[in-house]
Every structure is written in structure tokens, then in C-alpha cells.
């Protein structure tokens, strides 16, 4: 099994799916000749030609809109939004069209589109290249929202998304692209959407996270283990619909829960996770459910010290976990 | 304005008392210092004097009931205070002097009544438990007030409770146990020193005997002594033929002159006291980081009654003749059996002599009367064939058994001590002074 980077796992998944199914095609800004600004689609145009790897105009509403049309026609489009920050012009297409296709057509039509969008900060990308926008899409029934944190999950979940009959919004933390490496099988496999994953077993506190922040949690857990504190780490992987069972199970295991995400705290995914735990696990709880999230400010600052202040890091997570463990 | 009369403190280590008999009833007029009730505590019987003059308006505690020190036992309507204006201030002033506490010492009441209530939170607020802790404690019948928390500010965590469950649950806290825990603060934190099985099942037809406060005290003292002091044991046999002869000669004369029986015990005590003078180490106590060698030689003697064991003390026994010791023994034994010992009679012992021979024993392994360092038991005097100068002789022999706290004492010094006692006893003869 080869150790590859997160972004290579994304490319691998797309290449495998395009080879497997001729209905799968890629469209987006600079995805063809350029191979994507992050090089996620590198080599695809050479292998599959410009009819299946389509460079589009700078119009996200058109990228998603064309994708929806093609999906309705029986194709399996992978629409790339260059940065998640740019997804706003396509919200109408995603929320009002793709997500409701099956429901409003009484099951006659489905919309098997995958929309890939790199999100998150820590790359000195400033206001328009660093946002976490997932919370805007995690209360839209009909839409699935996925945010893998490891190369293995990225490949397996992207393949699952492409094969899914309904629209899937696929968030890739851009800091993970070349930072996170892991073992990824060469063969075909799928990671089911809607299933969270225990990334570390522990007994003192439960930490629930996703994306880049999950790696901070794992690093902090490693440090705490040396101090005798055992952390149970759950990777949500799918942000909508949430794996309620896994969340409740993980929370009940220790009774002390910390939810960590880079997205703003208020109205973030963590609030929903906390609500599920509050509803289902009251008598297992031994401490208030805590959240460690990005601050509620409009966007990622450009100034390096301020970006550092905004972003989570292993030390911040470590402090929050330790405090909860001692509660 | 009725004055409250509280259960008085009848000795340093006494925490509760039983109203054995009320000497007044409701409506009675009493004068100040009139006895109100007889109270028996762990080992002392005492009378509760009235703190004021007045009329008994209500008796709160029934006869036979055991209550903690500081508990309200009766109300007295003070004479001349019918108008409620002259109230508490006056009352309290009058009451400051004598022992039985009235309302002027509310702290004692407060302490007693609040002790069973849950321990306070860090900021003095009531402790708060998480839902998980509440549920687990209910499911497994765990008394959270007895759980020490490891969480922030001493909070009881789910893991704390789970650990107790995993360890097989909480030891039941029987009421008598918690009382004796207060009584013996030293033993409280070490669960080992507590009497273990309270959940013994009784079969049909078995008699259930409630444990009296005296029995309870004996139990906890014995357990504590056995637990704290590593007991070692040694014995010598002593030829007391001469003593027996001497005593037989002297006893009638003694009885006539002094009006009391000359028993063997004073001779043994005298010999022990003299040997303690020679080996002061034996007359000591273990005090954790030091050994305290006592200057006074106060001999505790064990006096058995049908249902209990009392250990009154002969104070300054080294300053007493055999007559003096005999008188003390006689007095203490009589008052023990009558239940008239005072707290003072019971305290201050530095070494114990136990006359196990009086019920025919020839060998015993006494438990040290903590915190003393050793205890000596005098066994029965029996005639035995003994070899003296390669000839067999019939001699009156006695075994002296010594249990010692091996933290303080070693075999060598105890051996020498016993040899010294033996020598003194064997040299008793016609020249021995009784006075």
C-alpha cells in the first residue's frame, strides 16, 4: 500500500472513477490544461480528453448549473469550485435545484452530482481563500456534505460521492492537500457516506472533529497520552446528515465531550453535534459539552499573527482537552 | 422562655451518651445543679446537673436513647422569666459556667447536625453532580457524600463513581461505624482498622444482641490496637511458692487490720511497678516519629463484669505500698462492678496488668491497651512438679505473659524486664513489707 498525499488520493479517486464509468466527467475553472490550481486534476485531460475534463468560465453558477443539467441527463459530473469561498454564486443551483430534484419530482429524477470545494485556512490565503463555509449547507435535506480528513477517507468518500444518486458537496481542507499523507490502497474501495470514524480509542475525554482540526486533535491526544490522559477521537467525515449513533456512542463512552472545528463557533456544525449529545446522552454526561472553534469574526485575517490567532493549532486543542479532562 | 439543656461533654473522647434514667419528669421544679438525668457514656456513668432553676417543661430524649454530645435533651422554664422579654441574653449569662452546654454553645449542635450532610463544594456551595454521576450512584446505591472526587475543586467525576462500581461497590456505612469513626479519629481514614463484616446474615432462631456503646468501644479499641501495634509475645514462669506461703500467713491479720482481703494481685503489681522503674522503656508509648517514655507509672488493671471489660487506673502506683495497691484495686474493682467509674478513673494508664488467672487461665495472649507499649497478664497459680537441684519438688508456679508493641520494644529488654519481675516475686518472703 502506497503512502500518498491527501490531494493525490483525490486525483486517484477521480481517475479510477473516470476509468470505471464513462459518464463521470470533470468541470471547473482551470481543471483541464492547468490541472487545477491545487493540481487535483493533473493528468486527467491527457488521459480522458477535453470533453471529459472541461475548463469553464469564471462562473460558479454555470459550473454547478451545467453539472445539474448533465446529471439529470444521466451523466455523473464532478464540479470543482476552485475555492469554497467562491461557492456563493452557485448556492441557488445547489440548494434550490440539486438538493430538491428528487423530492420535487416525486423520485422521478435524481441529481448525482459531486461538487468539490477546497476550504479552510492556514495557507496565508486571506479573506477569500480561507473560509469554512460548510455550516451554510448542513441544514439542507437532500444534500449530503462530506469533509474527509485523511487520504484514505478522501479517496473512499470521493468515490462514494461520485456513485451516489444524489448531490454531494465534497469539502477538502486545502491545508491537508500536501501536509497530510497516509496509506491509500491502489484498488477500488468505498467509504460509506454518513458514517463517522473513531480515529483514536480513549477513555477520559471524547473529542469530535473533522478536517484539518482533526489532526490537531490527534496530535494533542498523543501529547496528553504521555500525561496519562486518554482521549477518544471521533472523525465526523460526513457533516450532513450526521452519524448520530456514532456521536452518541462516542459521547457516552467518556461523558466529557469537546467538539473542535475551524469554522466559526456560533451556528457551526459543533452546535448540532452538541444538540444531538444533549438530546440522547444526558445521563452519560459528566461535564458540560465544550466547543473549541474559530472565532466569530467575518473572515480569516491576512496578517500572519492574526491568521495564527484565528486558526486552531495543536496547542490550543491540547489546552482545551486538558481542561476538560481535569473537570 | 424555656432554656434548652444539651447533652454534656462527659470526657474528651466521648461523642455520645445514653440517657439511662430521667431523675425528673415534666412539671417538676428543679434547682440549679439538681441532677436531671443519669447518663451513661462509653465507659462512664454520670449525672447531668441542671444549669438553671425552674420547671421542666419538656423532655426531648427518651430513656434508653443514645444521642450525640450537644443534642437537646430537655427544656426548663426558668423561674422568674415568665415574661418573654428577659429572654436569652440573661439565660446565657447565667449558663456560661457549668459543664452541660446550653444554647450558648450552638456550634456543637451545628457540627453534629451538619456532619452527615454532603460535603461542601469548593466555594462553600452545595456540591453538584453531573447527570452521569447521579444516575450511576442511584443505580449502584452509592452514597456520593462519601466519595472523594478527583475532578476540579474535588468534584466527583463519572470515573470516580465507575471506579467504585468496578471495585465491587461501596462498603455499607452502618451508623455505629460512623460513630466509632468519630470516636477514634485515628482509625477513621484507615478502613482496615474498621470492624469488617456488617452484612453477616442471621439465621432464623438466632439471637440478635444490639451492640452497647461499651461493647462498641471495646471493639474499636481492640481492632485499632491489633491493627496499629505489631504484637509480639513472650512468657516466663515464676516460682511463687514463697509468695503463696507468705500471703497465707499474712492474710487473716491483714483482713482484721485493714478490712480487706489480701489477694495475690497487689504483689504482682508491686513487682511489675518496681521493674518498670528499672526498665522505664517498657512504660512508654509509640507516637509516630518518637517514643514517649512516661514519667508517671499508672497501672491499668482489667476488671471484667458479665458483659464488659473495664480498665481503671491505679495512679502513681510506684508511690504505693502493697496495702495502698490493694486498696486501690479493691476500690476500682468495686466501683467498676457498680458502674461508678469516672472518666478520671479510666484515663492516664501507662502499663496494664491483667489478672487472667482469676478465671483459671494458665496462658493468654493479651491485646495491648493502646497507646501503651505492653501488657502483662498474670495467670493462675498452680502446683506443679518442678526440678530444683536435680530433685523433684512440688511448687506453686505461675506464668506471666507479656504482649509488647514491637515498634517500641524488642525481645531483649522485655526478657530482662520479665526476669526482673520474676526475681522480685521469687524473693518475696517473711521480710516483705506490706505497708
Automatic annotation (TrEMBL), chain A:
CDD domains attached to this UniProt entry: TPP_PYR_E1-PDHc-beta_like
Cofactor(s), by name: thiamine diphosphate
A molecular-function term among this protein's GO annotations: oxidoreductase activity
Cross-referenced Pfam families: Transket_pyr, Transketolase_C
Family matches, as InterPro entries: THDP-binding, Transketo_C/PFOR_II, Transketolase-like_Pyr-bd, Transketolase_C
Domain of life, per lineage: Bacteria
Signal peptide: none
Keywords: Oxidoreductase, Thiamine pyrophosphate
Start and end residues of each Transketolase-like pyrimidine-binding domain: 4-179
Keyword Oxidoreductase included in the entry's annotation: yes
PANTHER family per the UniProt record, alphabetical: PYRUVATE DEHYDROGENASE E1 COMPONENT BETA SUBUNIT, PYRUVATE DEHYDROGENASE E1 COMPONENT SUBUNIT BETA
Protein's recorded name: Alpha-ketoacid dehydrogenase subunit beta
Lineage, uppermost ranks: Bacteria, Bacillati, Bacillota, Bacilli, Bacillales
TrEMBL record, chain B:
Domain of life: Bacteria
Gene Ontology cellular component terms for the protein in this record: cytoplasm
Span of the signal peptide: none
CDD domains for this protein: lipoyl_domain (cd06849)
Annotated stretches, region: Disordered: 81-129
Keywords: Acyltransferase, Lipoyl, Transferase
Entry-linked InterPro entries: 2-oxoA_DH_lipoyl-BS, 2-oxoacid_DH_actylTfrase, 2-oxoacid_DH_E2_comp, Biotin_lipoyl, CAT-like_dom_sf, E3-bd_dom_sf, PSBD, Single_hybrid_motif
GO molecular function: acetyltransferase activity; lipoic acid binding
Lipoyl-binding domain location: 2-77
Pfam family, one: E3_binding
Matches recorded under PROSITE patterns: BIOTINYL_LIPOYL (PS50968), LIPOYL (PS00189), PSBD (PS51826)
Biased composition (Polar residues): 81-104
Domain Peripheral subunit-binding (PSBD) per the UniProt entry, residue ranges: 128-165
Cofactor section: (R)-lipoate
Similarity-based family: Belongs to the 2-oxoacid dehydrogenase family.
PANTHER family assigned to the protein according to its UniProt record, in alphabetical order: DIHYDROLIPOAMIDE ACETYLTRANSFERASE COMPONENT OF PYRUVATE DEHYDROGENASE COMPLEX, LIPOAMIDE ACYLTRANSFERASE COMPONENT OF BRANCHED-CHAIN ALPHA-KETO ACID DEHYDROGENASE COMPLEX, MITOCHONDRIAL
Protein name (Swiss-Prot/TrEMBL): Dihydrolipoamide acetyltransferase component of pyruvate dehydrogenase complex
Amino acid at each position: 500500500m502506497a503512502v500518498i498525499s491527501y490531494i493525490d488520493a483525490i486525483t486517484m479517486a477521480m481517475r479510477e472513477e473516470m476509468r470505471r464509468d464513462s459518464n463521470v466527467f470533470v468541470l471547473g475553472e482551470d481543471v483541464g490544461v492547468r490541472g487545477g490550481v491545487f493540481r487535483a486534476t493533473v493528468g486527467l485531460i491527457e488521459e480522458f480528453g477535453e470533453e471529459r475534463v472541461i475548463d469553464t468560465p469564471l462562473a460558479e453558477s454555470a459550473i454547478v448549473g451545467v453539472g445539474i443539467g448533465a446529471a439529470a441527463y444521466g451523466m455523473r459530473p464532478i464540479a470543482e469550485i476552485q475555492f469554497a469561498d467562491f461557492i456563493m454564486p452557485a448556492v441557488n443551483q445547489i440548494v434550490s435545484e440539486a438538493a430538491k430534484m428528487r423530492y420535487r419530482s416525486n423520485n422521478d429524477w435524481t441529481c448525482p452530482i459531486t461538487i468539490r470545494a477546497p476550504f479552510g485556512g492556514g495557507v496565508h490565503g486571506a479573506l477569500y481563500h480561507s473560509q469554512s463555509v460548510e455550516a451554510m449547507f448542513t441544514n439542507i435535506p437532500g444534500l449530503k456534505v462530506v469533509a474527509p480528513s485523511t487520504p484514505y477517507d478522501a479517496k473512499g468518500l470521493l468515490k462514494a460521492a461520485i456513485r451516489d444518486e444524489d448531490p454531494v458537496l465534497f469539502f477538502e481542507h486545502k491545508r491537508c492537500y500536501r501536509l497530510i499523507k497516509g496509506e491509500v490502497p491502489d484498488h477500488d474501495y468505498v467509504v460509506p457516506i454518513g458514517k463517522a470514524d473513531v480515529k483514536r480509542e480513549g477513555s477520559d475525554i471524547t473529542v469530535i472533529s473533522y478536517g484539518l482540526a482533526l489532526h490537531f486533535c490527534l496530535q494533542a491526544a498523543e501529547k496528553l497520552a504521555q500525561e496519562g490522559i486518554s482521549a477518544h477521537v471521533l472523525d465526523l467525515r460526513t457533516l450532513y446528515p450526521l452519524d448520530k449513533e456514532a456521536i452518541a456512542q462516542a459521547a457516552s463512552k467518556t461523558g466529557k465531550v469537546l467538539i473542535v472545528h475551524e469554522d466559526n463557533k456560533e451556528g457551526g456544525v459543533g452546535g448540532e453535534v452538541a444538540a444531538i449529545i444533549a438530546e440522547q446522552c444526558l445521563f452519560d454526561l459528566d461535564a458540560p459539552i465544550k466547543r473549541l472553534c474559530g472565532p466569530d469574526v467575518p473572515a480569516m485575517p491576512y496578517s500572519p499573527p492574526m491568521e495564527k490567532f484565528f486558526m486552531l493549532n495543536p496547542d490550543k486543542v491540547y489546552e482545551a482537552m486538558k481542561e476538560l479532562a481535569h473537570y | 422562655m424555656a432554656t434548652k439543656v444539651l447533652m454534656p461533654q462527659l470526657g474528651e473522647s466521648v461523642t455520645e451518651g445514653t440517657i439511662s434514667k430521667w431523675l425528673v419528669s415534666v412539671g417538676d421544679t428543679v434547682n440549679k445543679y439538681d441532677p436531671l438525668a443519669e447518663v451513661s457514656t462509653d465507659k462512664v456513668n454520670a449525672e447531668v446537673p441542671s444549669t438553671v432553676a425552674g420547671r421542666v417543661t419538656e423532655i426531648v430524649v427518651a430513656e434508653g436513647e443514645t444521642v450525640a454530645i450537644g443534642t437537646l435533651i430537655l427544656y426548663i422554664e426558668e423561674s422568674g422569666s415568665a415574661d418573654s422579654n428577659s429572654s436569652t441574653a440573661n439565660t446565657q449569662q447565667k449558663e456560661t459556667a457549668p459543664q452541660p452546654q446550653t444554647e450558648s454553645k450552638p456550634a456543637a449542635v451545628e457540627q453534629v447536625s451538619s456532619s452527615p450532610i454532603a460535603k461542601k463544594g469548593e466555594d462553600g456551595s452545595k456540591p453538584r453532580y453531573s447527570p452521569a454521576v447521579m444516575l450511576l450512584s442511584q443505580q449502584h446505591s452509592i452514597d456520593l457524600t462519601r466519595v472523594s472526587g478527583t475532578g476540579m475543586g474535588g468534584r466527583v467525576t463519572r470515573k470516580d463513581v465507575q471506579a467504585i462500581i468496578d471495585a465491587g461497590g461501596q462498603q455499607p456505612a452502618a451508623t455505629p461505624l460512623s460513630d466509632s469513626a468519630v470516636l477514634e479519629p485515628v482509625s477513621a481514614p484507615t478502613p482496615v482498622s474498621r470492624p469488617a463484616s456488617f452484612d453477616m446474615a442471621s439465621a432464623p432462631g438466632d439471637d440478635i444482641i444490639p451492640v452497647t456503646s461499651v461493647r462498641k468501644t471495646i471493639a474499636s479499641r481492640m481492632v485499632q490496637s491489633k491493627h496499629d501495634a505489631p504484637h509480639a509475645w513472650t512468657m516466663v514462669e515464676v516460682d511463687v511458692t514463697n509468695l503463696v506461703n507468705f500471703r497465707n500467713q499474712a492474710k487473716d491479720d491483714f483482713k482484721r487490720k485493714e478490712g480487706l482481703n489480701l489477694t495475690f494481685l497487689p504483689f504482682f503489681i508491686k513487682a511489675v511497678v518496681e521493674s518498670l522503674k528499672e526498665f522505664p522503656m517498657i512504660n512508654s508509648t509509640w507516637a509516630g516519629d518518637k517514643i514517649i517514655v512516661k514519667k508517671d507509672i499508672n497501672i491499668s488493671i482489667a476488671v471484667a463484669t458479665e458483659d464488659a471489660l473495664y480498665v481503671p487506673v491505679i495512679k502513681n502506683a510506684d508511690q504505693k505500698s502493697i496495702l495502698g495497691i490493694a486498696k486501690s484495686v479493691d476500690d476500682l474493682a468495686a466501683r467498676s462492678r457498680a458502674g461508678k467509674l469516672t472518666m478520671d478513673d479510666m484515663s492516664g494508664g501507662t502499663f496494664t496488668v491483667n489478672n487472667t488467672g482469676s478465671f483459671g487461665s494458665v496462658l493468654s495472649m493479651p491485646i495491648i491497651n493502646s497507646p501503651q507499649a505492653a501488657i502483662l497478664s498474670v495467670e493462675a497459680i498452680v502446683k506443679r512438679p518442678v526440678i530444683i537441684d536435680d530433685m523433684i519438688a512440688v511448687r506453686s508456679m505461675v506464668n506471666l505473659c507479656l504482649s509488647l508493641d514491637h515498634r517500641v520494644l524488642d525481645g531483649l529488654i522485655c526478657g530482662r524486664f520479665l526476669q526482673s519481675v520474676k526475681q522480685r516475686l521469687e524473693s518475696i518472703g517473711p521480710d516483705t513489707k506490706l505497708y
